[in-house]
Amino acid sequence: MALLLCPNCGARGIGKVGSSHYYCWECCVEFRAGRKGWQVYQVLDDGSLATVAGQAERTVAGGAIQEGAIERTQCAGDFGGP
Question: Using an 8 Å Cβ cutoff, are 54 and 41 in contact?
Fold first, then answer.
C-alpha cells in the first residue's frame, strides 16, 4: 500500500472520511482523487465543504507542497489530531 500524503501541505496525518474522501489533520482540508489530480476542499465551521477558490485540480509529485496551499489556522472542531 502506498503512503498517502496531503496534496495541500504534504503531511502524512491523513484519515479516510468516505469511500474516496480523505482528511488532513495538519492543514484541516478534505480531498479526493479527481480525473487529473486531487480536488481539495476547505472544511467550513458548519462542517460543509467549500472548493478552494481558483483551484485547478492539483497533481502532486513526490509529496511536494503546492504553491497557494491553504495555511493551517485552527480547524473547525480542532481536537489536536493524531
Answer: no
